[in-house]
């Protein structure tokens, strides 16, 4: 019986990639507005201080705090209203003792003011007089200059995946362009005599190609550029040609299907024929996805994913996704979002094998429950009908109904 060559736990298989490839990052300056999910190429320092002027956090009146000391409902402080600080305008009103000016949320304070009294704690007496019924401390209801960011402060490290709040933070400081690493290009070769493009009606024994599209979508989600190379039949030369052309254009090469050890499976041989060092791992201790291949050709990572669509997606998440981040200059990819949930059925496994099981989430008396969606790994709808995945660790023989599990959301 044909054997797998060098079966490794998935985490170790990724370490093989890490040890054999380096990030070949090329920085490019792009518009911050277009930089969501891109990876910073260098540390970003703040060019400015934020906020640049003291800002009120409330609608009310800016005051010298000491003028309000001792004020209460029973003994209000009477203050003279000498103007207001309009939004978006320079401050043109100064306070002497006992004076106040209207202030608005996010607007500036009058000159000489050091606090803001909420409008709820004042009473209008007439056009120029208010009563203040609560005292404020210096700095109360005020955001100070530099309270958010100081000038020249490091605001983002290199190798950081930009999130919506990071885009906003850069824009707040006028940083409208940002240095990011080029997105890694991922060539995808889908193999199999039985495959037809999704736009075609499959003939007898044929099926539509799913993996080109799930893998392309996953590449995009991980910040890479998918480069599908079309369908290759189960012929060595045709696959080799697609691979040679794919790897020439890309930073990473991904094969779908043909990754096992039967006589029909030729991905390993094709990878071996492309260059050195070739196949480094064949077989990972995981279900689904055992027949997976990790190789390196002239410093570029190459993966052979199993043809079963569920297996291909699971193995992509464990090996290809972190590799895309690695090549983007981000050695630790963002952790997927997880939720705790209570398992409603047993999941059988074996020690020495890591299982990945799709689950459907539901609420029962306010608590989240995870119901395993069992099904063979060629059933794409087991994933369509689920909300996330549960992992049975390598060293566990299974999980039991009632166990609290961590569900990785898609
Ligand atoms: P293989 O890895 O070639 O043994 O394929 C395993 C299973 O996955 C077979 O049932 C294939 O028909 C199926 N398969 C292979 N490639 C694809 C694909 N691109 N889309 C959907 N199913 C596929
Ligand atoms: Mg096949």
Explain how this protein is built.
- It is built from seven helices and 28 strands.
- The two termini are 37 Å apart.
- The longest helix is centred in the C-terminal third of the chain and has 19 residues, at 309-327.
- Helix 1 (10-20) runs parallel beside helix 6 (309-327), helix 3 (211-221) runs parallel beside helix 6 and helix 4 (236-249) crosses helix 5.
- It is an alpha/beta fold.
- The strands form eight sheets. A six-stranded mixed beta sheet has the order 7-4-6-5-9-8, with no helix packed on it. Strands 16-13-17-21-20-18 form a six-stranded mixed beta sheet, sandwiched between helices. Strands 22-25-24-26-28 form a five-stranded mixed β-barrel.
- The mean pLDDT is 97.
- It has helices at 10-20, 164-172, 211-221, 236-249, 267-274, 309-327, 381-384, and strands spanning 27-31, 44-45, 55-56, 60-63, 77-84, 99-103, 115-118, 122-126, 129-132, 142-143, 154-156, 177-181, 185-191, 195-196, 207-208, 225-232, 252-256, 277-282, 286-287, 293-297, 300-305, 338-343, 347-348, 354-364, 367-372, 388-392, 398-399, 404-409.
- Strand 20 (293-297) and strand 21 form a beta hairpin.
Ligands in the model, by name, code or SMILES, are: adenosine monophosphate, magnesium ion
* Total number of helices: 7
Helix content: 10-25%
Average pLDDT number? 97
- The number of E-state strands comes to 28
pLDDT under 50 segments (min length 5)? none
- Widest sheet, order of strands: 7-4-6-5-9-8
Most strands sheet: 6 strands, mixed
Percent strand? 25-35%
Q: How far from one another are the termini?
A: 37 Å
Q: Nearest-angstrom radius of gyration?
A: 30 Å
Characterize the overall form. Answer: elongated
Structural class: alpha/beta
């Amino acid at each position: 019986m044909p054997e797998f060559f060098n079966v490794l736990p998935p985490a170790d298989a990724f370490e093989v990639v890490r040890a054999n490839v380096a990030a070949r990052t090329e920085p490019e300056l792009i518009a911050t507005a277009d930089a969501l999910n891109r990876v910073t190429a260098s540390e970003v320092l703040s060019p400015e201080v934020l906020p640049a002027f003291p800002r009120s956090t409330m609608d009310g009146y800016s005051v010298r705090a000491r003028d309000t000391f001792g004020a209460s409902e029973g003994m209000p402080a009477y203050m003279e209203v000498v103007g207001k600080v309009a939004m978006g305008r320079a401050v043109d009103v100064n306070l002497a003792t006992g004076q106040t000016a209207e202030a608005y949320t996010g607007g500036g304070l009058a000159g000489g003011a050091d606090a803001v009294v909420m409008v709820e704690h004042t009473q209008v007496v007439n056009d120029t007089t208010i009563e203040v019924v609560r005292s404020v401390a210096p700095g109360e209801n005020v955001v100070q200059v530099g309270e958010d960011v100081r000038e020249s402060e490091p605001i983002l490290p290199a190798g950081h995946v930009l999130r919506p709040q990071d885009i906003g933070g850069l824009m707040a400081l006028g940083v409208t362009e940002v240095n990011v690493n080029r997105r890694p290009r991922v060539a995808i070769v889908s193999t199999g005599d039985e495959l037809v493009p999704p736009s075609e009606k499959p003939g007898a024994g044929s099926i539509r190609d799913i993996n080109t599209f799930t893998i392309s979508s996953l590449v995009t989600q991980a910040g890479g550029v998918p480069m599908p190379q079309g369908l290759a039949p189960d012929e060595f030369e045709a696959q080799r040609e697609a691979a040679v052309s794919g790897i020439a254009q890309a930073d990473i090469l991904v094969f779908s299907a043909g990754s096992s050890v039967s006589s029909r499976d030729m991905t390993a041989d094709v990878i071996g024929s492309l260059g050195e060092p070739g196949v480094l791992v064949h077989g990972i201790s995981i279900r689904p996805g055992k027949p997976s291949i990790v190789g390196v050709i002239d410093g570029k990572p190459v993966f052979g994913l199993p043809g079963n669509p569920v297996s291909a997606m699971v193995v992509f998440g464990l090996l290809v996704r972190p590799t895309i981040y690695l090549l983007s200059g981000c050695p630790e990819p963002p952790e997927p979002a997880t939720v705790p949930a209570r398992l409603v059925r047993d999941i059988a496994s074996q020690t020495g094998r890591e299982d990945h099981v799709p689950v459907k989430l539901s609420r029962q008396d306010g608590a989240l429950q995870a119901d395993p969606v069992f099904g063979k790994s060629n059933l794409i709808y087991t994933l369509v009908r689920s909300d996330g995945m549960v992992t049975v660790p390598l060293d566990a023989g299974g999980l039991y109904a009632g166990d609290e599990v961590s569900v990785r959301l898609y």
